């Protein structure tokens, strides 16, 4: 809740049983508040209740609260601003750093790479490419520019939405060079410089970077341990009136959470009331791993107010770089105008390949899901065996596990693990506002034996770190 007043009753609920510890009460309260701020459950920039309000809510002495606030100020987690009261902050030592970018799988030879949540290509890519090459001559006599995408691909994509119960015409589909490009186009079309865009926290950092580079201001709403906090989201929408919202509701990256149909409907109503355009990323929709029935598309609950992003990067192969936007009919021209300032269309050959793959998805994707299910279970078993103190909820789909560590050492662990041959991205990188130092995302996209060995090295790294204290951080990597 960046920049907003945190009610004393809400903070009391977040604190939980903070006093169940030895030592002075003020120190226990300060430590619990510090962890909530470091983990992003209380966002930097949030205004805490006054000392009197929190004293009444917790039933403690005014001295206890005043001393706790003073300790947080001394440690850099709280600042005092005239007219704003006590505002949360992050010490510079745990602020997220972007660092350099590397190409996953190219310059990581000899290392176990947990930075990239993307799988190798599905079987059948080469066959689809060969078939597409036969179709290519029909397009060579044209200029080759298709700002909206090849008609045959748009028809396949539209048919997939129809099959899910969402009426869609090919004219509502705009093919892009991947989901990240689709995000940039949608944000550019629907916002102006300085507009607010709501996101979750944690969330996919590269997409947040794209939103910020468009000139928009990111407003992050923390997710609860069980998923989306609907009352908090609704309150944030009312208080900040975001022009747009960018969310991942299907096996959310990085938490793996799946938003229920009831919550989708409730959130769609909140967006409609505030005239907020919801931009929903469905990149991971095709990857349910437990045979569960998927909720209706988010756009089903507001067909005229929701823009949907799709992609084949996670389901088929990232190397194809084909994504798309499903756009309400009234917004198609606006989206195309925004797209014209960025590129003139996706590559024709790749579009032909994806058209073939989508026609064969019923025979291709079951094998992909079975392989990911085996890898997910292998990673979970390895974590339970050698890192039993790490907490996680087994995701029902997607590509990654979101783990909670016993201590806020995520960024330090990145450096130690790299020296032991394991590449990681700290949880703080997934927070738009910083924090989440007790979390780590672990993709399960490598084979089971590789995952088991990587977790053993990770456990050894964690043991070294906790025995001797924090180590120097290294730069973060490109995150998929």
From TrEMBL:
Keyword Membrane among UniProt keywords: no
Keywords on record: Aminotransferase, DNA-binding, Pyridoxal phosphate, Transcription, Transcription regulation, Transferase
Domain of life: Bacteria
InterPro entries, per database record: Aminotransferase_I/II_large, HTH_trans_reg/aminotransferase, PyrdxlP-dep_Trfase, PyrdxlP-dep_Trfase_major, Tscrpt_reg_HTH_GntR, WH-like_DNA-bd_sf, WH_DNA-bd_sf
A molecular function GO annotation: transaminase activity
HTH gntR-type domain segment(s): 23-91
PROSITE patterns linked to this entry: HTH_GNTR
Membership in a protein family: In the C-terminal section; belongs to the class-I pyridoxal-phosphate-dependent aminotransferase family.
Listed name of the protein: PLP-dependent aminotransferase family protein
Species: Kribbella lupini
